[in-house]
Amino acid sequence: MSRIASTATPLAGHHPATLTGTVFIVDDDASVRDSTALYLSLKGFQTQLFACGEDFLSAMPDEPVGCVLLDLRMPGLSGIEVHQQLLRSRPELPVIFLTAHGDVATVRQCLKAGASDFIEKPVDHDMLIEAVNKALAQQASLAADRDRQSQKQSRLSRLTPRESEVLRLLAEGLQNRDVAVKLDISPRTVEVYKARLMEKLQTRTLADLIRVVFDEKQQ
């Protein structure tokens, strides 16, 4: 197996990176792997190194946290092919392409396919750090969105059938009195349900309640 190293930890005396996550470096050029990993470790990033796409894909954790520095042209699977597999299995993992062959058509192809960024070799260190921070921030934002959505779904699942019905009717634009008539309850009871819904779904206004329903329908 061509995995070169497990992790590189920050050296003493250097401030850790602001954003957490592992930078997976996939490049068949040992000098590029090692120099890039050393520089990133000096800046506080953890890294894992791989000499080919096949070994990288086989070693991927189920829910990787970080980003990938991926050489565009390698023996075996190319960077494009590795990226295509990642889009199917780990779409949340940002990819930064590295290449010594940075023609416009290739750059456009990679970015259109969903790459986070594209850096030409020899790698400019400032550009590298900027791209890595951008990619890690991108994944952190996606993870936060997933957590918020998961929490919303969990709260929705705890509603009673009647609470869900009241919420649906309110989201359809019905006024309290109309909801009351439709469900054969009093307007005061509708207000009680509305207050209970706001408490359970952690919202403050009717607009926020309706937004919860709208967001759920968009999933």
CATH architecture of the largest domain: 3-Layer(aba) Sandwich
- Portion of residues in helices? 40-55%
* Total separate domains: 2
Task: Give the overall form.
Answer: elongated
SSE class? alpha/beta
Order of SSEs:
EEHEHEHEHEHHHHH
InterPro entries: CheY-like_superfamily, Sig_transdc_resp-reg_receiver, Tscrpt_reg_LuxR_C, WH-like_DNA-bd_sf
Domain HTH luxR-type: 152-217
Keywords: DNA-binding, Phosphoprotein, Transcription, Transcription regulation, Two-component regulatory system
Modified residues (4-aspartylphosphate): 71
Concise overview:
The protein has 219 residues and is α/β, with parallel strands linked by helices. It has two domains: 3-144, Rossmann fold; 158-218, Winged helix-like DNA-binding domain superfamily/Winged helix DNA-binding domain (Arc Repressor Mutant, subunit A), CATH 1.10.10.10. It has helices at residues 30-42, 53-59, 79-89, 104-112, 125-157, 161-171, 176-183, 187-201, 206-218; strands at residues 3-8, 22-26, 46-50, 66-71, 95-99, 117-120.
